[in-house]
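Contributing new records

If you add data, match the layout below exactly. Sequence lines come first and carry their own label; structure lines follow with theirs. Keep one chain per record. Anything else will be rejected by the validation script.
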Amino acid sequence: MPFIAQPQIQHQLLQTIEQGRLAHANLFWGNAGTGKLAMALWIAQTLNCSQHTDKGACGTCESCQKTAKLIHPDVTWILPTYKSETEKKRTSEDFTPEIRAFLLEHHFYPSYAQWVDTLDAYNKQTAITVEDIRQLKQKMSLASFEGKFKVVILWHAEKMRTEAANAFLKLLEEPPTNTIFILTAPSPEQVLPTIQSRCQSTFFPPLSDETIANYLIDFHKIENITAHKAAFLAQGNINEAIRLIEQDTHIFDEITQNWLRACYAVKMSEIQNISDTIAKLSREAQKNFLVYLLHILRNAMIAHYEVEKLLFVPDTMKEFVLKFGKTLSPQTFEELYNTLNQAMEYVNRNINSKILYMTLSVRMAKILDKSKKIK
């Protein structure tokens, strides 16, 4: 059974299932790590469970076990994939082993970046293609193999290309009998309006710190204090909490300190050298570095408000974070944070890394220099 982080939503959905009112098309939307995919799996289990309980799926019958292992013939998973110019047209079905391993490894709380990493597709365009939908139509034309319902789960439905979205729309307009579609997306606005209008929309809010901490303690055997610190910093995202605990970031400590100090002092020669060093990292390492830097900034903000007990940084970074946090204003933190988040969006694009990090460094230097003048 997946960990259900949204019990209130689960209860509401269970009521609609028991009353026979579950919509044939459902859109689960919200930030990553809030339980959309785990809930979709639970619905697939509940609809075909042979030993239904007052909480829905029993989790132990053959149907539930097959669904949890992603081998149930009546449950279809569609994830964005890629193809190269020299390859035949490929669909999610061609990536079945990778999809199963990926979702099981991350306990149905994955991030899109992790999926791109699994596919090694940083310089490739991932999407749900019209071939996916055509193949799905053929599958939906067949009778159920084992269960009463056929369930189709489309992860990141906003990745559907226009042709795929139009083909999928036709499928929603004339849905096959006893077929349930569950789409997930960061927000409804990113999904084609005509598809969105045909779906029952359910928002998945950020998770509470307590929910995330309990998950880390129960499922990952994380020590209590560490679990609560990670939960506090994860901002409602289970996946981010796990990443904070697992990531070995000591290799970024020196470059983080040197870069922030150089930007603060506006030492252009040092800024140039450090920018070049970062640009030479692999694209994945660059992204991990920026994520780590955002994490350090969040902790510096905590240090600014002198809540030292909530710091979650390596011992090698603690003194630096405490000092750096006391030199900046909340407004400066916000500007730096927004600037780094914007840079994150460019990392996966074909942008010259040297130009990207030099431009980023200059912007950060201006923000930090302005903060000194305000004082």
